[in-house]
Amino acid sequence: MRSTLEAIYRDHRQGLFTVALSITRKPDRAEDAIHDAFARLCRAGTSPTGDPVAYAYAAVRNAAIDITRKRQEMSIDAPAGSEGPNPMNPLKHRDARTNISIYNGHDPSLAGSDQAAMANEKEQIIRKAVDELPQPQRDVLIMKLYAGLTFDQIALASNEPLSTVASRYRRALDKLKEQLAPIA
Amino acid sequence: MNDKHDKHDKHDKHDKHDKMTKLNDDELERMLQALPLHRPSDELDRRVLGLTLQLQVGSASMRLWFRLGTALAACIALAALVYLAMNNRDPDTRPNNPLVAAPVSPDIASDFNPVRIEDVWSTVQPQDLVHIDNTPLRRYLQQSYERVQLIDEERNIRIEYTVPRNDLIVMPARFD
């Protein structure tokens, strides 16, 4: 079990982190989620019956959702419709401002040039389009593109039927095509 | 003027549609995959790989304890077998060496003059009824502990031993 977990972590380190980050929107919480998930898997000790990679992704995803839910429960909800900083809840306002995308800015080698400005703008549009996808579609897209999972593995990891996963991916691609066509 | 504007709009829409159709799934996937992603820190490696290392150490120590326990159990079993073999021999083959008291230094033996204190605790609990020769009898279990202390304050010697004892007493049952 130890060697299996270690191998999964080494092979899917980036994918696991991206999946967790897309849910938590905070790098430190994403890392906490991965740590918690692997700690649980280590404690469990037994090998999963199905696909171990899908099992690890499911554990990380659940841990990320748990952490995010706990943080939301800890913060006091802001009054409905309030846009500005809430003096009663500075944490929530700060959290909303510091949400991190899974993407890491533009290529620093192009900094300062027109090319860099264009690349940056293009990335901003793509980032916005991906971030605006509904969470279930975004999850499937990230697990497919950035974690390299098959639809079967995604279905196992997200505990959804295969057809649902495939149709979510299709819808996500269609929506992105529509939004990104002008910059293609 | 309006016609010209409409034509321009139609041209824009047509152009956009063309671009949409041109952007196929593979291109879109490649475009998305080309974007740099946030990377996890090296600290995460230490944390997660540390976990699996702990698991390894834990398993190794568990295996070691298991082996030690097995070895200890085997030693006890062997000792018990040897003991049983020695004590279940025929009287003819048993070595003829009765227990001999260990020699005591004459100085110590003559000077040892302890005070003897005896304490006895006992409880009696009624048990079930038995019939012997058609006479109903009740059994009583008497559990007692006898503690003997031998104290020689002059020589600062103190010996203490406790003897547990169970006696089964049978008395005629009375039905009042």
Report the structural category of chain A: mainly alpha
How is the biggest beta sheet of chain B arranged? 3 strands, antiparallel
Count every beta strand of chain A, where a strand is a DSSP E run of 2 or more residues: 0
**Biggest chain-to-chain interface with counts:** A-B, 42 and 31 residues
Dominant shape of chain A: globular
Q: How far apart, in Å, are the first and last alpha carbons of chain B?
A: 127 Å
Number of helices of chain B: 4
> Uncertain spans of chain B, ≥5 residues at pLDDT below 50?
14-20
Largest sheet of chain B, order of strands side by side? Answer: 1-2-3
Q: What is the chain-wise order of helices and strands of chain A?
A: HHHHHHHH
Taking the sheet with the most strands of chain A, its summary is: none
Content of β-strand of chain A: under 5%
Which range does the strand content of chain B fall in? 25-35%
Number of helices of chain A: 8
Rounded radius of gyration of chain B (Å): 46 Å
The general outline of chain B is elongated
Helix amount of chain A:
55-70%
Strand element count of chain B: 3
